[in-house]
Each structure stands twice: as C-alpha cells, then as structure tokens.
Amino acid sequence: GYLWEYVADAWHGDYSDAPTDGSSWEDKAAGPSPQRVIRGGSWRDRFDSLRSSTRAAIPDHTRSDAIGFR
Fold first, then answer.
1. Distances 17 to 2, 59, 65 between C-alpha atoms, Å
2. How far are the Cα atoms of 5, 13, 37, 46, 62 from residue 10, in angstroms, in the given order?
3. What stretches of the chain show up as alpha helix (H) in DSSP?
C-alpha cells in the first residue's frame, strides 16, 4: 500500500475481451497505448483507495514518487 503499482497493461475501461492466460493486455491492432494502468493506491491516497482492486489510467510518461513497479 505504499506505492501505486505500475503494470504492463494498456488502459481499458472494463475487462471485456481481457486475456485469460495472465499475459499483459495490449491492443496490438491499435498500436502503442498512451495510457497505462496503475493499481493499489499509495501513501498519498485515502484509506479506501488502498486495495489491490483499485486501478487508474495514467499517461505512459508519468513519473511520480507515489508510483513504483514490482
């Protein structure tokens, strides 16, 4: 819960047509996505955002002391 987790998936508004094999979710036909997914909330967020199911879209070039990766 200390940092948002930056993940490999491109942003999609819902899980329609998401891969079921655990691979990252890209839309290869559309090309590179300018939006990426972050998950989990950070030390800057309210307690109700500190959950693994919390996700948000961010521009792919965003840098922040509240975003990390594993």
1. 31, 22, 32
2. 14, 10, 6, 25, 14
3. none
